[in-house]
Amino acid sequence: MASKMLSSFVPSPTTDLFSPARRHHRPNARTGSITELATPAVTRTAVSLEYASLRHTGHCPLGMYVTPSPENLMIWDAVFFVHQGYYTDSILKFRLIFPSNYPERPPTVQFLTDVFHPLISQQDGSFNLAPRFRPWKPKEHHVFDVLHWVKAAFKKHALDDIREGDCFNKEAYRLYHDTTSSFAALATQSSMLSQSASALFDKDHPSMAGKGSHSMQFKELKPEQLSALRAKIGLYDWEEEQQP
Q1: Helix residue ranges, H only, the chain
Q2: Are the C-beta atoms of residues 28 and 71 closer than 8 Å to each other?
């Protein structure tokens, strides 16, 4: 499925995030978060600099793509392609929402894709940062630290260390420790559902209810479009590479 789709990849962090066109937005009803107009200039500057820093080597995790919402700089949309572990091949959409007093307080992380994970609420997709940032230290912690923790949380070593008291999904925690095979089956099911055509392409998918739209949109490619794109970027099937 992944080979038949195309997404909007992260734009250059040198994008002018201070332009007047970005600062005049309608109220953001989709998340209930503070609007950009009501955000102090110092916070907007801090958030802009955090995004610009993602261009530095190692700051944006591999397999993760991030872009500020075109409606509000204080909201970033992201997609995470999981390459290993229980959630292998998952395609997970999530969002970072910055508070008006950032960096004094951390951003909120919300998954828009349904995923069975101990740290993710099944009600609203909220992700718990506490296991990694206890407490949040504004002079030491940055958004790239948050992104790396999101990625790490899907790996076995992090799952092993999660405390039950930090879990938004207690059932996932208990299954992981008591019946790992059942947990693995549900994680695999989450992965398969995240790759489904409805989850990727349907803007009205049930998992998006009450969460608003995501600015990174996927679209399915026709076979001829896919072939042309693969040829353009130098990707070929194994059989084609073996031909003399």
Answers
A1: 20-23, 41-53, 143-152, 156-161, 170-178, 180-194, 197-201, 223-232, 238-242
A2: yes
Q: What is the pLDDT of residue 230?
A: 85
Domains in the chain, CATH or no CATH each: 41-213 (3.10.110.10)
Residue 135 preceded by cis peptide, ω within 30: yes
**Tens digit of each residue's pLDDT (9 = 90 or more) over 7-36:** 434 443 434 444 444 444 433 444 445 566
Contact yes or no for 206/193 (Cβ under 8 A): no
Please state, in angstroms and rounded to a whole number, the distance separating the CA atoms of residues 94 and 82.
13
Per the CB < 8 A criterion, the answer to whether 144 and 180 are in contact is no
Contacts by 89-95 with C-beta closer than 8 Å and gap 24+?
Answer: 89/2, 89/191, 89/195, 90/115, 90/154, 90/190, 90/191, 90/194, 90/195, 91/2, 91/194, 91/195, 91/199, 91/200, 92/194, 93/214, 93/216, 94/125, 94/127, 94/150, 95/31, 95/211, 95/214
Residues 57-79, mean pLDDT to the nearest whole number: 94
On whether the pTM is more than 0.90, the answer is no
Q: What is the pLDDT of residues 108-135, one digit of tens each?
A: 999 999 999 999 999 999 999 999 999 9
